Amino acid sequence: MENPNNASRRNFFKTGAALGASLMAAPAFSNLSTAKEQAPKENNGLPNFTKRRTLGSGKHSLEVSALGLGCMGMSYHRSFVPDRNRMIALLRKAAEMGVTLFDTAEVYGPYVNEELVGEALAPLRKDVLISSKFGFNIENGQMAGLNSKPDHIRSVVEQSLKRLRTDHIDLLYQHRVDPNVPIEDVAGTVKDLIAEGKVRRFGLSEASSENIRKAHAVQPVTALQSEYSLMWRKVEDDALKVCEELGIGFVPYSPLCRGYLTGLINERTKFIASNDNRATLPRYQPDAIVANWAMIDVLTEFGNHRGYTVAQVALAYLLAQKPWIVPIPGTTKQAHLQENLWSAEIEFTVDELKQLTEAVSKITVVGDRYTGQSAQQVKN
Ligand SMILES: NC(=O)c1ccc[n+]([C@@H]2O[C@H](COP(=O)([O-])OP(=O)(O)OC[C@H]3O[C@@H](n4cnc5c(N)ncnc54)[C@H](OP(=O)(O)O)[C@@H]3O)[C@@H](O)[C@H]2O)c1
Question: What mean pLDDT is reported for the chain?
C-alpha cells in the first residue's frame, strides 16, 4: 500500500508547482478572483499539514501531528507578549492547518497560558490534543520549588481542567522530577487520574533513565518531553535509547534552541528580563551567541543548497532521527508556523543526514543550557 505521507508530499509539490506555474504565467493585471478559484480552499490556498506520528505504544499510544505547537511563548518567557486575540486566532489557525498537539503548562504565566489555550481551543476541542504539566508550587505568581505530592497533582489537574475548559487532559506531564516524592507515587496518581477519565496519557519531562523506568513500570509513559535541538544533543546518548527500548515517544522542547536556530537572534538581540529566561541563560549572552555562530553557518550553507531555511534544517534533523520524535516549536507568527510545519516535508538522503551530522558534530557548543536551581532540576 502506498505510504500516505508520500502521497501528501507529492500533492504538496504538485500544488506548489501548479501555483508557481500559474503565478509565472499570469499577466500583470490578471483576474485575481480567477486565481483564487483555482487555488485549493484549505489554509489560504496552501495544502493542509497531514503528517502524523505516534507517541508511545499499544493502548498508551497517541497519534499526533508530526510537529506540535509549543504555546508557552504566546504568554511567557519569550519577551514580548503579543495581542491575546491574535494568539487565539493563531491557535485556531494552527488547528485548521493540521496541527493536533498543543503544549502548555500550569506554570506558563503562571496560569494565563492554559487559559489562552483553553479559550482558543474550546470550540475545536474534539479535533485537538492538549498536553499540560504539573510539578511546581506557585507562590505570588512565581515558581516556588518542586511539588509532585499526590494531593498537589490532583488539585493542579482540577484547576488546569477549568482553565483549559475541558473534562480531560490528553497528555499530562510531570514537569520536573521531585526528589522528595517517589516517582512510583507520581505514576500511581496519574494512573488513578487516567482511570477517572480526567487524563488520557502520562508523560515525563527531563526525567533520568532510572526514573523513566520506575515510572513506566507503574503507568506506561507515552512521551518524554525534554530539551533537544542541534544545540543540545545529549539525549541522543541516553534518553532516546531508553525511549526506544521501552516504546516511549519523544517530544523535543525548545527544538529551535529558543529561537537561536533560526539565525534571527544575534549578539545585539535584547531580551526583556522580566519575561524571558534567555536574558540570564548563558547560551544567549552575546559572547556565546557569537561563539556558536558556526552552527548557523552550517545550517545556512546546508539549507541554501536545497531551498530550506535554518529553522527547517534544524527541525528536519530532529524528525529524521526517529519516527516517534515530535518536536513542539513555539511561535507567535503564522509565517513561522507554516515554515516550521514544512520541515516535515523534508526527507534527507542517508548521505545528506550523514553530512549534516558530521558537520554539526565538529562544533563545540559554548554556554550552559541552564544555571542554578533550573540546572539542578534537570538532573533528577
Ligand atoms: N518541558 C519543559 O520543561 C519545557 C521547557 C521549555 C519549553 N517547553 C515547551 O516547548 C515549546 C517550545 O520551546 P521554546 O519556545 O522554548 O523554544 P523554540 O521552540 O526552540 O523557539 C521558540 C522561539 O523561536 C522563534 N521561532 C519559531 N519558529 C521560528 C521561525 N521559523 N523563524 C524564526 N523564529 C522562529 C519564536 O519566535 P516567534 O514567535 O517570533 O516565531 C520563539 O521566540 C514551548 O512553547 C513549551 O510548550 C517545555
Answer: 90
16 pLDDT more than 70: no
3-state secondary structure of 371: coil
Whether 205 lines ligand 1, by a CB cut-off of 6 Å, is yes
DSSP state of 285: S
Rounded Cα–Cα distance for residues 368 and 243 (Å): 25
Integer Cα distance of 164 and 170 in angstroms: 11
List the chain domain ranges.
1-47, 48-375
Task: Output the CA 261–ligand 1 centroid distance in Å.
Answer: 10
Cα dihedral sign, 238-153-194-106: negative
Mean pLDDT of 173-198: 98
Tell me the mean pLDDT in the region 127-156: 97
Tell me how far apart the alpha carbons of residues 211 and 221 are, in angstroms, rounded to a whole number. Answer: 11
Judge whether 9 and 345 are in contact, CB under 8 Å. Answer: yes
| Centre of ligand 1 from the C-alpha of residue 341, in Å | 13
Q: Among residues 193, 177, 158, 194, which one has the least CA distance to residue 377?
A: 177
108 is a catalytic site residue: yes
Q: Are strands 62-65 and 52-55 parallel, antiparallel or unpaired?
A: antiparallel
Tell whether ligand 1 has an atom less than 6 A from the beta carbon of residue 276: no
Q: What's the pLDDT tens digit per position in 74-103? A: 999 998 999 999 999 999 999 999 999 999
Quote the cell numbers at residue 54.
Answer: 505516534
Report whether CATH 3.20.20.100 matches the domain 48-375.
Answer: yes
Which of these is catalytic: 108, 111, 253, 317?
A: 108
Report the b/e string of 174-185 with b at 16+ CB within 10 A: bbbbbeebebeb
Q: Does 106 contact ligand 1 (Cβ within 6 A)? A: no
**Is 313 touching ligand 1 by the criterion CB < 6 Å?**
no
Ligand 1 mean position, distance from CA 136 (Å): 21
Q: Which atom number of ligand 1 is nearest to the Cα of residue 335?
A: 31
Q: Would you place residue 42 in the very low, low, confident or very high pLDDT band (cuts 50, 70, 90)?
A: low
Q: How far apart are CA 173 and CA 212, in angstroms?
A: 12
Tell me which residue has cell 507503574: 218
Which tens digits make up the pLDDT trace of 270-306? 999 999 999 999 999 999 999 999 999 999 999 999 9
Nine cell digits for residue 180: 522528595
